[in-house]
Amino acid sequence: MALSPQQHEVVVHDFKLHALVLAVAGSGKSTTMVERIAFLVEAGKFDPTSIIAVMFNSGAAKEMLHRLQKRLGKRNAPESCTFHGLGTRTLKRLVTGGYAEPWTFEANVHKANKFAAEVITSACRKYGHKYPRLVAQDFLGFVDRVKSDLKSPAAVWAAGDWPARYEWFVPWYNQFEKERTEKRIRFFSDLIYDPVKIMLNNPDAAAYINGRYKHVILDEYQDICESQQSLVRFTAGTVARVMAVGDDDQTIYGWRGAKSDYILRDFHRDFPGGTTYKLNRTWRYGHALSCSANYVITGNTDRADKLCISGSKAPNTELFLEYEGFVNGKPKIVSIVDQWLKGGGQLTEMVVLVRSYSKSAESQFQLLQYGIPFRLEGGDEASVLENKWVASLIGWMQLAAGQVAKNAFFGEPDIGSIIGIRKFVDVPSLDVGWENSGILSKLVLQHPEEGQGFGNFVSAHVSSQNQMMADRVLRRGKLWRKLRNMGKTREYPKPVILLNELLYFLDIEKSVMKEANKDEEAEEILSLIEAFIEYVKVNSKGKSLPEFMNHVQDLLTFSESAKESTVALLITSCHRSKGMEWPCVIMPSLYQGSFPIVPRSISESKIESHLADERRLFYVGMTRAINKLYLIAPRDPRLDEWLRACKGGNCDDVIPFAKDVSVASQFLYESNLYLSKALPAILAGGKGRESLRASSPELLNRYLKELGVDFQVPKIA
């Protein structure tokens, strides 16, 4: 098949040398890898069983195998697996050689969680954690990070952002490993960790693995962690030649141990004497987006020196800077959707990309109000209406509107009614336990008058010695009685007044902060709640409480039906968008503190690295677009002034690192949008390019030079 000169160079790379391939977004790296492997089999005459392609997830591994089989036939197609698949193969060989024991592998995450909960039960009791099953999820996250970093638990704790209340995780890691060893069991992370540790501690085991493969092809190399790097190093040994393909500008999984150090420096340390190639032509998007994305990402100093340049057959991608507000009475995002559909586009061709799901709340409400079906990729907690804290507030408001438990149940309530009541009766948690919260909900349904069900529960299910629990339950019963009486007497308060009273009575903010594992998680939840509060303020005006709650129920009903729709707009996170593309991309809520996120507490020394991580994520989001990219920001007069001067790059003197909903994201300042949008006309030799001036034309001029264009934009002071 036809390859670009850059791709061809990679494909015919010397069989005897390692290679690092720096591939920008949309550069055809998958095609290049398939052709490289085909070249090894057809021209190099390497046995397909001596070649392995290692991909980052199972979907990519299956897709690569399918493409190899289509290209070479099933008999000549080499293996394609994930890193965990490579670890599994290595373990089996170590077992065969007598260097490892064939322990049981437990793939079920619930069983892994149960095992961890049993290990830490005594620690939870000692340190005041009531529910080991809940703590076990966080504990396993710490265990996995220790195993991915290959560092001591103390070192991982010191380098991370772990809740102080979990400091006992450090000594308990060894207890977890002790019990895992005694029970001869392996969990998901151990498929890489165990073979690596065996080979690190036993040179004979490492020598036994050496020589199995002649060529190892790695995809998404920028996302690799220390344990994976070590596994590849042992797999390659002294025999195999490694070709790693990735983009340091797309290193966005730092929270699980990925570092750009591996692709920038450590590859050549571990696999010396290799060649570095650059696939810097993208076929996904046009010159304007390439240029703007380059302006943004060059704000990072620790990166490979490369420019992303659109290929000759790339589409002409249009960039739009939109300000928040309304167009012909419709919210901006709804107007964009309408425009796309009127132009012949489909909802399934659109995506709303957000830095965090809480920042999609306003968009969710607007789409729901205008009947635009959307699919939210990220679970129920990402949905503003289905987030458990917002669902609790809605439940209490529905009770006050007389729309819940109108009559007592005679006999056993159905499971759906019990679940519905538990959603708000036990949020914030009463700490009665999962089973007891179900019993409480059932009693409330059977005896709703005057909150009698709460009293019945205390009498039958709370020990007389546990007065604190009894008080909590009875206080919640008092709220029930008050709100239910409102519904019966029809003395309705204004929705926003009731909501404020609920926030105060339930002490929602304190409860969220207490329950959240990290400050960032708490901020996410509180942002969703704030979005709901704002929605109530704006949309309940002129409506009685029952009228407004009927409106909310309509939104909930539409939200449920939209989930079943096959034709829907997608809302997802920039993290989840990696490796994907859409004709139309919308990035809303681009203000300082939203993107980049400004953590509630961050040390001065960590701001630069944090911004570098956020900048890479913004770059990934931008570069998902094919035809149109819409960037929605607050109306910021300084941004207009900055962009009209064709500025890009450092804006520290203009934009402080602080949360401010009135200030556009610093990444928009860095984007040099106006100059980037002028690039297609410059390349076309359009009239007026001779009069163009810019404050920051250096990067664009370099872009023109690499394309062989004999024109430069003059710099103005």
Structure summarized in a few sentences:
This protein has 29 helices and 20 strands.
Give a verbal description of the structure.
Helices cover about 50% and strands about 10% of the residues. The chain is an alpha/beta fold. Helix 9 (about 190-200) packs across helix 11, helix 13 (about 285-295) packs antiparallel against helix 28 (about 675-685) and helix 16 packs across helix 20 (about 465-490). The protein folds into four domains: about 5-100 and about 195-280, P-loop containing nucleotide triphosphate hydrolases (Rossmann fold, 3-Layer(aba) Sandwich); about 120-185; about 285-355 and about 575-705, Double Stranded RNA Binding Domain (2-Layer Sandwich); about 390-560, PCRA, domain 4 (Orthogonal Bundle), CATH 1.10.486. It starts with a helix and ends in an 11-residue tail after the last helix. It is built from 29 helices and 20 strands. The radius of gyration is 29 Å and the shape is globular. The strands form six sheets. Strands 3-2-6-7-1-8 form a six-stranded parallel sheet, sandwiched between helices.
What are the main properties of this structure?
717 residues, Double Stranded RNA Binding Domain, six-stranded parallel β-sheet, 29 helices, globular
